[in-house]
User: Fold this.
Amino acid sequence: MPEIILKNVTKTFDHTNAVDHLNLVIKDREFITLLGPSGCGKTTTLRMIAGLETPTSGEIIIDGQTVFSSEKGIDVPPQKRNVGFLFQNYALWPHMTVLQNITFGLENLKWDKKRIEERSSKLMEMMQIEEYRDRYPAELSGGQQQRVAIARTLATGPRILLMDEPLSNLDAKLRMEMRSELKRLHIETDSTFVYVTHDQLEAMTLATRISLMKKGKLQQFDAPLTVYNRPANAFTADFIGNPSINLIPVKVEQIEGRNAILGTGVGKLHFHPLENIEIKAGEDLTLGIRPENIEISDEGCLDAKVYSALPSGMETVVKLDVQGLILTAVVFGDSEFHMNDKVKIRFRSRKNHLFRHDEEGRRIASGELD
Assistant:
């Protein structure tokens, strides 16, 4: 089974760690997304797995075989790692037809003609590109070129497919369609997918697990809904979710049993944690409230004013001014809001979070607010 293991993998460029002691275990048949902002080390990580980049230190194991070890002096070349690599720009041969692009690698491997025909026909059918077999890349749309690139990458039967932002050059509608195709393809090919993206929606919809990185360091490695509902730290909470989570500086004014009274600068909130936490009166913390957990209701306890409203049909993103504190809420349905409307708000979930107010920003509790 092609499990991928990274042990303390580090890559240094000009005395800066692009990847910093990364430890990952990618299980067989998983769909993993390497997610994070530009410069976080996700593409470098992918290239090190592929063998296109040499780590400074650490160990990489693919399917039980050590393909890189700084300690043992092992560095297996890319062509011997049995992985397929799908580039951002498709990298199709412009002078070759769709069929020729797909069969090129098989011919180099000296497959017999009948086997090549069977394999290419199966792939073109799977990717729904049979009718384009005699066309050249310049005669295809971006989505069609992407399907050809995927078929070519899968032609030799790699058990691991590495993809570096393969949908970034497509328009929004086509990206959504190709996400569905990639998810279907993952099941059909019974392969392990490792996928680089900076788009958190893409990561959430595609992945079985998300590896979120920041400045070369792993922040969280969990299932998408776990990352969303139980973020490891404030960075994770802020990066995952659209619209972004509301992060509010608060001070612990008082502890009442397990509950905490939080001062926000615009009033006090009562936080009821779901688990035992160790905090003290006077501590500075950060409170995280997802936009969908702020309800605009006549039964609300906080007065607010509509700062702006962005309707999109299915939902409306409403910016609320609470005595100078700007909060983001999401209202589902076709409700209308106008600038400077006076409203009341309340909090309606047990999934509000408290984070340490420091560089690490570790989550220390989730709970209810009133």
About this structure: DSSP finds eight helices and 22 strands in the chain. Helices lie at 42-50, 98-108, 113-126, 142-154, 172-189, 200-206, 224-229, 234-239.
